[in-house]
Structures are given as structure tokens and as C-alpha cells.
Amino acid sequence: MHEELIWADYFAAAVPAGAIFDLTVRELRGIASVSDSSQQNLNPGAELCLIGLVAYFEAFCKNHFASMVNICPQLVENLHVANRDVSVKAVDLLNLEAPLSASLGFLIVDRFDFGTPKSVNSLYMDLIRLTPFSKEEAEMYGKILDDRNLLVHHGGIFTPRYAKERFIAREVERRRLFMDSLLVTKDQFVAASAFVLDISRKMRVSTQLALRNLLRERGQEIPEELGKAVDALAWKDDLEETA
Fold first, then answer.
1. Which of 77, 130, 133 lies closest to 108 in space, CA to CA?
2. Which residues of the chain have pLDDT under 50?
3. 80, 52 contact by CB (below 8 A)
4. CA distance 217 to 213
5. How far apart are CA 174 and CA 153, in angstroms?
6. What DSSP designation does 13 have?
């Protein structure tokens, strides 16, 4: 079965999730670099870049997870033992052009939520016995998510829920509710992108190592193209740290 495949067949759009994420971060930084960097005014360019960063990172977590299942379908057993729903519709199988072994992960991940550090940690723990976010990293990313959600759902205008989580409870700050807006600068976006990019790259390395060790422990022969796919899980492009 594996001899009919090339390494790229195991990845969404035939490109490793890490490569796609590196490219999108580079593009977002390019957009942010020409945005208004004023500390006093709203910066729609930086705001949109922050929203995009979170969206693309969620897609990375999802597609990387799916590719691991594609490479090693036996991982579905771990998800099943953890009471994850790994059923697929027969009609969806009919629409697959590639062999099932290279696409099973794509069918399974659609029902999983990769939107928070807690859900990502839980899913990756069930899949491969590791948690991508440390406690401190989860808290930091949670703040980025708070900002993203405020921008998407409230246009950045401060709400009681956001204030409760992010403000010191003082009267002067209560008066800012429904009046003032979140300010996202170019530098703030670049810092956020560096942090999320670092999380992404640590995920790639740790999951690749865990999967390679699992295949070795099972004594499973790794065909050449499958081995290339395992290597590609840790894909890393050279990116400048600042936009």
C-alpha cells in the first residue's frame, strides 16, 4: 500500500502543516510591517494579522494531527481507547482518491476542537501521549485567544468578561467598559507571532520524535516514502524573528 504513495500524500494540500504555517506567519508579518504602528490609534492591519495568526495556528494543530494519523493509522486505537469518536461515514470514503491509509486522519479530525490550549493538549495526549502546551504557555496563548475573541466578537471594544480576566478591578477601568477598544500594535503582533511560531515548532519536533519512537517500538518497517513523511513532520523554514 505504502509503495503507491509519495511522502506528500500524507499531508493536507500535499504540504506539511509546519511548512504552511511558517509561510503564513511570514506573510502576516509582511502585512503587519506596513501597518500603522501608532500607539494611540487603532491598527486594523495588526488586528487582522492577530486574528489570522490564531486561525492559521488552529489549522496547523488540526492538519498536523491528521497527518500523524495518516502516517500511522494505528494511532486511531489510542483515540478509541480514550473514548474519542473515530467513526467515519461510508459515503465520505467514496469521495477519497488517495488510499484510505493516507487520508483517514482528514476524515477523523473534523469532529475535534483544536481551538484552545486545553483541547489541543487533551487531543495530543490521547493521540501520542504528549502535551504541546506547558501551563505557562497555555496561559500566554489564552491571552492571545482572549484578544482574538474580543476583536472577532466585539470589534475590540472592552466587555465585562474581558475586563474581569484582564483588568485590575478598579473603578477607573470599569468606566472603560463598552467605551475603549483594544489596541494591537505591529510590535505586539510580531511578539505574538514569535511565541505561537515557537509553540508550533516545538510541537513538530516532539511529535515527530514520539511517532518515530512508536514505530520503532512496534518493530514496524518504515518504507522510504513513509520515512520521508515522518521527517517532514518537523519541517522548519528559516524565518526572521521580526517583520
1. 77
2. 1-3, 241-243
3. no
4. 6
5. 20
6. G
